Amino acid sequence: MGSNKYDLIVVGGGILGTFHAYHALLKGLRVLQLEKDNYPVSSTVRNFGQVVPSGMAGRWFDYGVRGLEIYKSIQNEMDISVRNNGSMYIASDPDEVQLLHELSAHYQLVDYDHELWSKEQVLQAYPMMHASYVKEAIIFKQEVSVEPDLMIHRLHHYMQSKFDQYTLKYNKTVIACEDKADTVNVTSSDHEVFYTDKVIICNGYEFKILYRSLFENSGLKISKLQMMRTKPLKSMHLPGNILTGLTIRRYESFEAYCPSFHQVVVPEHYHKLRKQGIHILFKQAMDGSIIIGDSHEYASGSQLDELGFSIHATINDLMLNEANRILPVDHTMIASSWAGFYAQHENEILELDISDRIHVRTGIGGKGMTASAGYAEASIAKIFG
């Protein structure tokens, strides 16, 4: 076995797999991480990069809060693109205002710092927003954002520089994991074999290579999201994670902690948007461009191909029209549009133990950027406990 023997092999180079590797390294384990692509290109980089525990409920809120600490700790050692600009949820009508106040009451009980801002405070901080949209907002100044196209690459670089016990290999597609009782043999598509005490498979939405039959009826779904990015807009200063009325009507924390959530009426102009799973988010990148989105289409976990990779112009039009109710943006400002995909599970995440040595952890859904760091810490403690 020689140099190909490890304490842990992590299959998958995205955020969930990477933080499993990170927490294993902190325990002093020798870790190999294998990524099938040239570098991570999937869910971890095709998102907004918003780290918003305020939108989570139950244990995922706790994981998100812990994740804030972990992100900030790493950022203190190396710039992995973490920016502490906070999060803002903007209410556009009286029902959404009511939900903000109910969420505020909950966060007062659990002592999670926040502020309620008046319309005047919001417009003073963000004068480019349309006054006709803004009613009130709730602010979480401790929350952070990352640059999704940079963060995972910088995190890998940080781990390589910090931990001698860490090996990362791109372009390594794992085609077999065989539990041999005293070790697990992990075989790549180029017939290289690695040996390990434990394997954690964080395969995102790739269900066709390893254990396909186990994923067929696992409760996994794939969500396809459409997003747009503007040209750099240096004249528009939009720091932080900006979440809006449709988000208030969608996110878990509002549903879990707001007594009025299921009683609020859906305005007529929201019906088409909700049918496409649209809720409007904004995140300004370091170059001044603004990410706008997103929408949600679904397929079962084994039927990713049914979603296709095309961008639907009608969905982009719906998103941009709603975005323009909030900010002065239009088609002339859009530089690019793309589809992102992520796996989600009916039980919030798929935790599947193939054997005592082989563990699947996938399907974290849209919670990945916020909750992976904290969740992986608990997951490693459980698997190696």
Distance between the termini: 25 Å
Q: Give the CA-based shape.
A: globular
The description of the largest β-sheet is: 9 strands, mixed
Number of helices: 11
CATH class category name of the largest domain:
Alpha Beta
Based on CA atoms alone, the radius of gyration comes out at: 21 Å
- CATH superfamily grouping of the largest domain: FAD/NAD(P)-binding domain
Q: Can you tell me the CATH topology of the largest domain?
A: FAD/NAD(P)-binding domain
| Average residue pLDDT | 95
Element-by-element helix/strand order: EHEEHEHEHEEHEEEEHEEHHHEEEHEEEH
Structural class: alpha+beta
Task: Indicate the percent of residues in helices.
Answer: 25-40%
Record field, number of beta strands: 19
In the residues, how many domains can be counted?
2
- What are the low-pLDDT stretches, counting only 5+ consecutive residues below 50? none
* Level-2 CATH architecture of the largest domain: 3-Layer(bba) Sandwich
Which descriptors would you attach to this protein?
D-Amino Acid Oxidase, Chain A, domain 2, globular
Question: What can you see in these coordinates?
Answer:
- It is built from eleven helices and 19 strands.
- The protein has helices at residues 15-26, 59-77, 94-109, 119-125, 148-162, 212-216, 245-248, 252-257, 271-275, 313-324, 368-383, and strands spanning 5-11, 31-34, 50-51, 87-91, 115-118, 136-140, 144-145, 166-169, 174-179, 184-188, 193-201, 220-230, 241-243, 281-284, 290-293, 297-300, 334-345, 350-353, 358-362.
- It is an alpha+beta fold and 385 residues long.
- The radius of gyration is 21 Å and the shape is globular.
- It folds into two domains: 1-83 and 145-218 and 348-385, FAD/NAD(P)-binding domain, CATH 3.50.50.60; 87-141 and 220-345, D-Amino Acid Oxidase, Chain A, domain 2 (2-Layer Sandwich).
